Amino acid sequence: MTEDLTPAEAYAAARARNAERATALHPFREMYDFDLDPFQIEACKALEAGKGVLVAAPTGSGKTIVGEFAVHLALTQGRKCFYTTPIKALSNQKYADLVKRYGADKVGLLTGDNSVNGDAPIVVMTTEVLRNMLYAGSQALSGLGYVVMDEVHYLSDRFRGAVWEEVIIHLPESVTLVSLSATVSNAEEFGDWLDTVRGDTEVIVSESRPVPLWQHVLAGRRMYDLFEEETDHGGRGASRREVNPDLLRLARTENTRTYNPRERRRGKMVREADRERERRQRSRIWTPGRPEVIDRLDAEGLLPAITFIFSRAGCEAAVQQCLYAGLRLNDDEARQRVREIVEERTASIPTEDLHVLGYYEWLEALERGIAAHHAGMLPTFKEVVEELFVRGLVKAVFATETLALGINMPARSVVLEKLVKWNGEQHADITPGEYTQLTGRAGRRGIDVEGHAVVLWQRGLDPGHLAGLAGTRTYPLRSSFRPSYNMAVNLVDQFGRHRSRELLETSFAQFQADRSVVGISRQVQKNEEGLEGYREGMTCHLGDFEEYARLRRDLKDRETELAKQGAAQRRAQAAGSLEKLKPGDVIHVPTGKFAGLALVLDPGIPAGRTNGHRGFEHHDGPRPLVLTAERQVKRLASIDFPVPVEALERMRIPKSFNPRSPQSRRDLASALRSKAGHINPERHRKDRSAAADDREIARLRTEIRAHPCHGCDEREDHARWAERYHRLQRDTRQLERRIEGRTNTIARTFDRIVALLTELDYLRGDEVTDNGKRLARLYGELDLLASECLRDRVWEGLTPPELAACVSALVYESRQADDAVAPKLPTGNAKAALGEMVRIWGRLDALEEEFKINQAEGVGQREPDLGFAWAAYQWASDKGLDQVLREAEMPAGDFVRWCKQVIDVLGQIAAAAPKENSTVAKNARKAVDSLLRGVVAYSSVG
Predict the structure, then answer these.
(1) 3-state secondary structure string, 24-67?
(2) How many CB atoms within 10 Å of residue 615?
(3) Run of H or E including 178
(4) CA nearest 884: which of 903, 905, 899?
(5) What is the Cα–Cα distance from 234 to 414, expressed in whole angstroms?
(6) What number of H helices and E strands is found in the chain?
(7) Phi and psi (nearest 5°) for 653?
(8) How much is the pTM?
(9) Across residues 430-457, what is the average pLDDT?
(10) Residue 259: its pLDDT value, please?
């Protein structure tokens, strides 16, 4: 094509090529055996120009290339680059990738558990490690040029998201920030904030998937395309996608075919025909079993596949079902290779522990090419699964949604069993963002021509809803930033209270709150213009109509108030009369569905006494159980008795009476009608209205009649304008209160935290006390509780295992929120110390309530959970893995994770505890050594 260029064009092209060769991007591009995508090139050029970048792109699109270019730039310029990730597994994976490229001498790893070559020019770390370095003023920050924040959308995480914002706000100005995010719908808003706090930031958004994604529904023997055949192929073009009409027809048939016995059918033949039609339909539509799904995908060449099951037990059960079904996805050569890799990776695990960990069953499944992947697994086992999957030696993985969080495990297909998952409180539909994250694993760049997302048919599946999930490719990034006690003392120590307050107001949380205020402020301005117009409409030539309207409104409010008081009084009288009822009383139910004659079988339970527990069910007065004259036994409510009720007569209820027996009800109802059917209930006389004797009402009526505007011919027209004015004014005041509530919210929370810390002598104005300096070294959800325990010497004299048990209460959270069984605890000093920790928490909880620090808003100290204390004590006491796991009734992966978190906090306590006249620091280090053994020690790099 060069011969078609004019000499001037050829010269310009040559100059452009030479200019590119002079950039750092040129040699970087040559390191890859594929060409970079436009969005990657755009981001890399912005970085080389000295700008920060925010790259928002779908999972698997290769946005980490931009992070790797930041590493390349740092090395080229002789500066440092920190690569941060949200989870240790991602840190381990990125560390291995960078070591492969640049060599072990140039790359370090810091994850809290591990410190490998921390002074290297490239250091991979978890975000919390960098936050702690910033607060400590670490020397490692010297010469730092770039920070890559991978999976930056984690700042939405309500438990850990604040850390991302802390890092972004506190990084030195000289550091260039590279933010890598999943596709979010408000990337521009996030980019605007980064621009505000970090300086010039380029926002690069890519909506295109590198591998097109096809969406399917598997029902019975047939795989339906979710969308009709179109040119879009999962997001490449702009054509409109219609839901497959065959799938819509299937859903309609499925949802209308069920025989409903309540429906009135004519004759037995019709019902039989319905049942036969349903049986024929059932033969075509069902939810395929797990082995059947994998077999089907294998036959269609759609393996390897990840099946997302939102339950650990479900993942393990799926593997067992595939084994029982005799599924084999590997040939003999692959089986042999799997065994070699597994034995090599698990060589350090003692033989006696392998049995406890279910090693042999796990290995059998791996050899067949099948595995589970969830947080309950030993980290070593999970990493082996990941490695084998990437190598193509495991072809079917059953995983919980945690696998979708950044781990590099792309597949050809992703299967979703259900579109509902447990969110910690209830079963809820998965969001479009979660659906995008899960299905984003489908399609391996450079391997697959296309990826496939398969949703299994479930009863009641709505193809339109599924299409909405699949078509909504983005979700908004929402800040979860909240100040904490540790953050407060660290900020005050570095910047003083005033500057700290200003810094917190630069958070993304406050940025979003302030932006939401802009729209409300506009509405307030519009309302104020409207109020001016309404004021003109109600102007009266005879006098001040606003004053007259206020008198009318006061009269109406007073009448309404008295009417409510009267209604409340009548309800109280009715409730009082119900409390006097006894079994055998014949009454007349005045209103409602069961109005008429009734016999009291049971007077009902007094108000608020159900379950005998505060906060449970409360009844608005007694609820008598009655038999009506029409033979119905019903529990009535106070709403059925707007007026007091009296017994008209009394009847004996036979001991043999059974309310469930139609015959018993018939006989007793007949006796009721005979005994009292002739009695006419006395009509309740209406009491004199309270308004008739009310002095305030009389005064207001007099003033209204005496007001000049009362005689105006256009009085009612003015009154209508006045009513509109009042309603709009009320709405405007509500909007102004909302603005006030959203403005400076973060700073106000900070003020309350500072006030509480001042009360506890952690702060004195801008001075951080010795107590505060101790708190500054303690990071975690229960930072203040840990600091108070050190101050009160609660842990003095404890042995290392006892200290491990106590510290476990600061980190552990039971997966079952309301566990009725009291946890087993170590005896002696440890039990006393745990009891004291709970008492200190109670004192702090009362203080937080006094200072209006609300746990529901993500600020404050939750109650310590003692559920892991016995397991931590046993393990630190050198007990065997089998015994500890059996008594803890806990999966190995959870046990290792909690142990590592206890080790992390023990390390903080060792650093924060007094060095003189205290055994805590020494015993904390010993406790770390006691816990860091066996499965806890050999669970991989991080």
Answers:
(1) CHHHHHCCCCCCCCHHHHHHHHHHHCCCEEEEECCCCCCCHHHH
(2) 6
(3) strand 176-181
(4) 899
(5) 14
(6) 34, 24
(7) -95, 120
(8) 0.69
(9) 80
(10) 42
